[in-house]
Amino acid sequence: MKDKHPQKDQQDGQHSHEGHSHHPDHHDVPSDAALRVKALESLLVEKGVVDAAALDAIIDTYQHKVGPQNGARVVARAWSDSAFRDRLLADATAAIAELGYTGRQGEHMVAVENTPQVHNMVVCTLCSCYPWSVLGLPPVWYKSSPYRSRAVIDPRGVLQEFGVELPEQVEVRVWDSTAEIRYLVIPQRPPGTEHMDEESLAELVTRDSMIGVAMAKLPQGETP
Ligand code: FE
């Protein structure tokens, strides 16, 4: 394969150009998107519809306070506490709220658990619906049209590009997020982690593993 991680590359490209939309790879994002957002924001502030400080506070929250570290704590709790895991699978919104994670784009959460038999992955085919309260803001590749279409048509191919090779007998389930329902993947607990506490377990839970395009990290010294 020529290019193993086209979508990841796109994400990294975007990361180093944060706030600028002139990156040539963004066929699916209008190159003037940032300008348009800025123009809309100015207009809304000028008309008194929104308060610039309130907008800054919201952006700060999602950039610094809400992120995949929240979801990682949820997963680590589920791995270490089977009663919590059961509650999470039964009513994810309520179980996640037990840890204090609530709020916008996380009102109707569903947790899906990866097992040796079933691998779950999440997409929003329509736009970019994503569980903000546990994962923060979506990565650029998640919003890209190649991911959105190919995750459904060829989930195994997409997983391979992310470096995930699943045995043939593993069933892949693709969950299409909507404005109503946001999914959180509980990745499989890696081997060699039996002795680990919740805090160290959470460090193994990556954002991508909770979208279902990666496995949780292995603990140091452990080989696949
Ligand atoms: Fe969406």
Describe the structure.
This protein is mainly α and 224 residues long. The chain has two domains: 31-65, no CATH class; 67-211, Nitrile Hydratase, Chain A (Alpha-Beta Complex). 45% of the residues lie in helices and 10% in strands. It is built from twelve helices and four strands; from the N terminus they run H-H-H-H-H-H-E-E-H-H-H-H-E-E-H-H. It has helices at residues 6-15, 33-46, 52-65, 68-80, 82-90, 92-98, 132-135, 140-143, 145-153, 155-161, 198-202, 207-211; strands spanning 109-113, 118-123, 171-176, 182-186. The strands form two sheets. It has a two-stranded parallel sheet. A two-stranded parallel sheet has the order 2-3. The structure holds fe (iii) ion (FE). Residues 124, 126-129, 177 line the site of fe (iii) ion.
Number of domains: 2
**CA gyration radius, whole angstroms:** 18 Å
Strand count: 4
- What is the highest CATH level, the class of the largest domain? Alpha Beta
Q: Which strand-content bin applies to the residues?
A: 5-15%
Bound molecules: fe (iii) ion
CATH architecture assignment of the largest domain? Alpha-Beta Complex
| Computed structural class | mainly alpha
